[in-house]
Write a structure and sequence with these properties.
With 321 residues, this protein is mostly helical. Helix content is 67%, strand content 0%. It contains 14 helices and no strands. It starts with a helix and ends in a 14-residue tail after the last helix. The structure holds fe (ii) ion (2 copies).
Length: 321
């Protein structure tokens, strides 16, 4: 870190930007990255047990709905299979449409403050990991489609996380505002994706591969969250007042987009599984209190807000945990 940067940091009162964190993470990558250590487990996964569901029923927002419960076991199984597929779609979209373009932007110098060698090593490694994650999830989805002989799968809408980014994007006009939105969405995604992956990573009731892929993925992401906290800090000190305000204002929006239940995806799935009253089922759930969130663990964003000393500025109720 240059002397000027250091002075800047101290003067702005942020948590110290510690190059050693990034260096340590980057140094451990060759030993730690799942692309290196777990390739075989993905290439030759455990056998598929057709008796086991593809996705845990308890995670469906309509798991208790009488019309869902009244369906045949085959219909319910088809819903769970497609639920697993969209679970993966949501991960892949976050990586392919949000995180990876942002990592490329950081590497190409779109944001001031990303010049250090250690930061670049860590970001480039993270980018490599993400491409591998997409591959893992893609392989798992292909296997499911083969084994379950899925036909008539609906076209899924863009995931809710990405739709919210597009909506926010449509409300701004400046290039820097759009870049910043991508940065914030990526920051939130990198520090919150583990909470999403943990919905499945320890589940013993589903296909073993459907817990394994999220579990392996989550291992990389615990390093990514530390990388992203440091990256966000490093870029934030170089932002002007307006940009900082925009960063802080976007954080809770991105978090909400990341944790919310995606009601738009379910009618198509239910219809494809033969439910006649698909819209009614989903509308009932949407109206019901307490069904709006898929992920309830906000610890990642709480951490970055604390580390960046933004507690007084971020408008989000993290609840008490
Ligand atoms: Fe990832
Ligand atoms: Fe990541």
């Amino acid at each position: 870190m240059s002397i000027t940067e250091h002075e800047h940091t101290v003067e702005d009162g942020f948590g110290h930007i510690d190059e050693t964190v990034l260096r340590r993470i980057a140094d451990s990558w060759p030993r730690r990255a799942t692309i290196r250590t777990d390739l075989d487990q993905i290439a030759e996964p455990e056998e598929y047990d057709e008796q086991l569901p593809d996705y845990p029923e308890r995670l469906l927002p309509f798991a208790d709905h009488p019309l869902y419960l009244a369906a045949t076991p085959e219909q319910r199984q088809r819903v769970l299979t497609m639920a697993w597929l969209v679970y993966n779609e949501r991960v892949i979209a976050a990586e392919e449409y949000v995180a990876n373009p942002t990592f490329a932007m950081i590497m190409h110098g779109a944001f001031p403050g990303a010049d250090s060698v250690q930061l670049k090593r860590a970001v480039q490694q993270t980018h490599v990991d993400e491409v591998w994650h997409t591959y893992m999830h893609m392989i798992a989805m292909q296997r499911t489609r083969e084994v379950r002989q899925i036909t008539g799968e609906p076209a899924y809408p863009h995931t809710v996380t990405y739709r919210r980014l597009l909506e926010a994007d449509a409300q701004v006009s400046e290039r820097w505002e759009r870049d910043l939105l991508k940065l914030v969405w990526t920051t939130v995604s990198e520090i919150s994706v583990n909470a999403y992956l943990e919905l499945l990573s320890r589940d013993k009731t589903v296909q073993p591969l459907h817990a394994l892929v999220p579990r392996l993925h989550a291992r990389d992401e615990s390093a990514h969250s530390s990388v992203m906290v440091e990256v966000a800090k490093a870029l934030y000190v170089h932002m002007n007042t307006e940009q900082r305000r925009s960063f802080v204002a976007s954080l809770p929006k991105a978090l909400h987009a990341f944790v919310e239940q995606d009601f738009a995806v379910w009618p198509g799935i239910l219809k494809a599984a033969g439910f006649e009253k698909a819209d009614e089922i989903v509308e009932d759930c949407r109206r019901q209190a307490g069904t709006g969130l898929l992920v309830r663990d906000f610890s990642g964003v709480r951490r970055i807000v604390r580390e960046m000393e933004l507690e007084d500025q971020v408008d989000f109720d993290f609840g008490t945990e």
